[in-house]
Amino acid sequence: MASHRRPKQPSRTRVTVLTTAAAAAVAITAQTGAQAAPKPKIEDVKAQVEELQHQGEEAIEQYNLAEERRGTLQKEIGQLQDKVARGQQELNTLRDQIGSVASAQYRSGGIDPALQLFLSADPDTYLDKASAIDQVSAQQADVLTSIQAKQRTLAQQRAEATTKLADLEDVRKTLGAKKKKFQAKLAEAQRLLNTLTAAERAKIQEQEREKEQRASRDAGERLDLGKEAPANGFGAAALSAAATRVGMPYDPGAEGPGSFDCSGLTQWAYGKAGVDLTRTTYTQQNDGTKIGRSQLKPGDLVFFNGLSHVGLYAGNNTILHAPKPGAFVRYESMNYMGTFQFGVRIGG
Description:
Strand content: 5-15%
Largest sheet: 6 strands, antiparallel
Distance between the termini: 114 Å
Helix content: 55-70%
Shape: elongated
């Protein structure tokens, strides 16, 4: 007969040893993982954040472009709807005239065959039928021709309004996508900053403040519009207006007067000079005459980095601009601005 023995239980000491060994293995694995992904250097994080901010600014300008298109479409749709309403009223008046003639003829003993044909037929084909049986007077023909033309115009205007409404819906979807894109870029930049210690983040902020102060101080000392004449009166006035905004914060989509993005600042400054610029870098490039770097004069617009950034040329290789998220309106050397595209002179 086989014996039934209970299996031997591991001792408490052995369990403790195994638990300790497992914990050590986890710790070693964690340490190995940490060694495989070393903490990023502050300089690398700063460079990545600046690149993300640049990408975010590009998305902001694309958002502004879609927003400008939305405003234009809404204005055009409103104008079309007004035209349709007025046209419908005119059409109703013309129809009332025909109806009044028919009523008068009925009371006098009968309706003119031409009117009877019109009232029972499609107005678009009426004239052809009426002329074929020679039953329309010259006066009636004028009124009926007006009705026919008005109906066709109304149909075209309604079709155009319907198309623009569909375009507006597409633009609204584009706006949402662009907004999410630049918000995602800025959020990613913030996540990178959050990998740094508080002291490291403070160091980056201090470096940025020192850079702004140095750029503004150096540019201010060098700037002499008396020696380097402005492009024209518009440019001088715009540059003077923008100078009053130095120190104002960058804010995506902002148009002033207390905060700006890059194209918002140039639009606001030229608005103070009496010139209506369009809203975005992509459209402001067409608001004046393109010029090369050697032709720049104070007040000209200057574009950088694939048209994603714009500022005002202030003289002596310096621009006045709203740089990027987290920064403030300031003077800065063009040497630090990236790829120069071209200048644009406003007002000839």
